[in-house]
Design brief:
Elements lengths: L1 E5 L3 H13 L3 E5 L2 H10 L4 E5 L7 H10 L6 E5 L4 H10 L3 E4 L4 H15 L6 E4 L2 E4 L5 E3 L2 E3 L3 H12 L4 E2 L1 H8 L10 H13 L8 E4 L3 E4 L5
Parallel strand pairs: 1-2, 1-3, 3-4, 4-5
Antiparallel strand pairs: 6-7, 7-8, 8-9, 10-12, 11-12
């Protein structure tokens, strides 16, 4: 997933960036509200973490602009403020959750995972399609009860497919959601990852979960039978 962090405290911003990348997310970072709003509206973000007290433009204004433009991805607010009215205003403007500073990084990651699951229509961390089960919290993948070993990027591709079953997903869309702004993946990296996933998920070719749509991209089968 591609996550935006808008935070003016350099140490915290970089800490969050590192933690999110360790979890396998692509990360975009902004140090003020102006850059944050630009990234939030111009890039294919899956979730935004936004501090309320930002220079240039407030976090509340970013949330207001996102919802005004009908961008409905989850927004998690960070705030050092103890005033409950700030939190209420953020939620009423369209934020989905908030964390008060200081916080434990484990709590933040749990809230992020929950928001990503719920935005895709899953309340529980386990997502199942046919014989395939993916735990979005532990990132454990099982096929017919057997644990599969996936690389970081193989897992990221599979996770994106599992959260968008039945949808046509282009190679460009996968690139944008798997890699951050500064990344420059090789042109055939998606094809390579898809090929490796197919061999691991369906070595005998019996299930064929990933369909190639010539000129359009890929579609992960949606049926659960």
């Amino acid at each position: 997933m591609r996550i935006l962090v808008v935070e003016d405290e350099t140490e915290l911003r970089e800490l969050l960036g590192r933690a999110l990348k360790r979890q396998g997310h692509a990360v975009d970072l902004a140090a003020d509200g102006i850059d944050g709003l630009h990234l939030a509206t111009e890039y294919p973000i899956d979730l935004a973490i936004i501090d309320l007290g930002l220079p240039g433009q407030s976090g509340l204004e970013i949330v207001r602009q996102l919802r005004k433009r009908e961008l409905d991805y989850p927004v998690l607010i960070l705030t050092a403020r103890s005033d409950w009215q700030d939190k209420v205003e953020a939620l009423e403007l369209g934020a989905d959750d908030y964390v008060t500073k200081p916080f434990r990084i484990e709590e933040l990651m749990a809230r992020i995972n929950a928001l990503l699951r719920r935005s895709a229509g899953h309340a529980a961390p386990e997502v199942r399609i046919g014989p395939l089960e993916v735990n979005l919290s532990s990132q454990i993948v099982r096929m017919a009860g057997e644990t599969l070993e996936l690389t970081t990027f193989e897992y990221k591709v599979l996770e994106y497919f599992m959260l968008h079953p039945g949808q046509v997903v282009s190679k460009m869309e996968l690139n944008e959601h798997l890699y951050d702004e500064d990344a420059d993946p090789e042109s055939n990296v998606i094809e390579v990852l898809i090929g490796r996933l197919r061999r691991k998920l369906d070595p005998e070719g019996d299930w064929q979960p990933i369909e190639t749509l010539r000129g359009r991209g890929y579609r992960f089968r949606q049926d659960e039978d």
